Amino acid sequence: MGAIANNPIILSDPWVRSGALIPSSCAVSERSFLALTPQIHPTAVVHPGAEIHPTVQIGPHCSIGERVKLGPGTQVGANVVIDGWTEIGARNRIFPGAVVGLEPQDLKYSGDETLVQIGNDNRIRECVTINRATKGGEMTRIGNGNLLMAYVHVAHNCVLQDKIVIANAVSLAGHVEIESQAVIGGMSGFHQFVHVGKLAMVGAMSRIDRDVPPFTLVEGSPARVRTLNVLGLKRAGVQELEDGATYRALKKAYRILFRNNRALEEGLRELEPLLHVDLVRHLYHFAKTSSQAPGRRGMVPGKS
């Protein structure tokens, strides 16, 4: 094989790789070349320093910054901006108008190298904004298999786990953390440092200023715990675990914490005999951490 050519080969296809280099002595068909290079629309602006996997597609009028990394099979729609120290994994779909990795909307930000890390198989719909973290070495992180609907805002230092659904126009303030399989109703607003538990559901247009307990349905302004997230638990197969024993234990734990008008510390003591059940143990530790850990805001209360 000969030396690598210094100049890119430009093909007639409307999708081309900017700056692509192939061996000058090899006879490579147009089809083979396109199969081995990213499909980048000629109107897109991609910095030569960006790391773009060969199977990536980038649509018209996109802007991809120098420190961006895009993984296998990721599709970037028209008019998307991805900048900063941003790493995006495999098979993500980023829809038109999304903006990922720009500076945080935080007056404390001083230009440090901060990150956005996005996993695999996420769908980031139209006009979603995802800001990078505030302080050097920190990260805004999104896991795998999430759906962020149009106009969702994910602020600096947020952490989203896996298989979360966030409906349209939800706003997450800085340092919000959402555990796996939660569902967030549209146009809800989240105070900074709030945590949302696993398999929780938040009703639309809710004001969330305290932690949302796992496995519950929370709704309102101010928000209140309304019931267990029965539909979410059913879809997740919890009602069938151990012939229903897990679900019955979780219902009992829910009544202890949110329906008996007792202090949280007393309720946690009553939960101790049920801690052999994994989901009850998760609820117990979430509630205890929410009430005791520095910087946490306590849990959304039950309805009166």
What features would you describe in this structure?
The protein is of the alpha/beta class. The protein has a domain at about 30-235: UDP N-Acetylglucosamine Acyltransferase, domain 1, CATH 2.160.10. It has five helices and 28 strands. It has helices spanning about 30-35, 230-235, 245-260, 265-270, 280-290, and strands at about 40, 45, 50, 55-60, 65, 70, 75, 80, 85-90, 95, 100, 115-120, 125, 130, 140, 145-150, 155, 160, 165, 170, 175-180, 185, 190, 195, 200, 205-210, 215-220, 225-230. It has an eleven-stranded mixed β-sheet. A hairpin with a 2-residue loop joins β27 and β28 (about 225-230). α3 (about 245-260) packs parallel to α5 (about 280-290) and α4 (about 265-270) runs antiparallel to α5. The longest helix is centred in the last third of the chain and has 15 residues, at about 280-290. The chain starts with about 30 loop residues before the first helix and ends in a 12-residue tail after the last helix. Residues about 1-30 have low confidence and may be disordered.
- Contiguous uncertain segments of 5+ residues: 1-28
Strand residue percentage: 15-25%
Order of strands across the biggest sheet?
1-4-7-10-13-16-19-22-25-27-28
The level 1 CATH classification of the domain at 30-236 is Mainly Beta
How many separate helices?
A: 5
CATH architecture of the domain at 30-236: 3 Solenoid
Overall structural class, as computed from helix and strand content, comes to alpha/beta
**Could you give me the name of the CATH homologous superfamily of the domain at 30-236?**
Hexapeptide repeat proteins
At the fold tier of CATH, the topology name of the domain at 30-236 is: UDP N-Acetylglucosamine Acyltransferase, domain 1
Mean pLDDT rating: 90
User: What's the gyration radius in Å?
Assistant: 23 Å
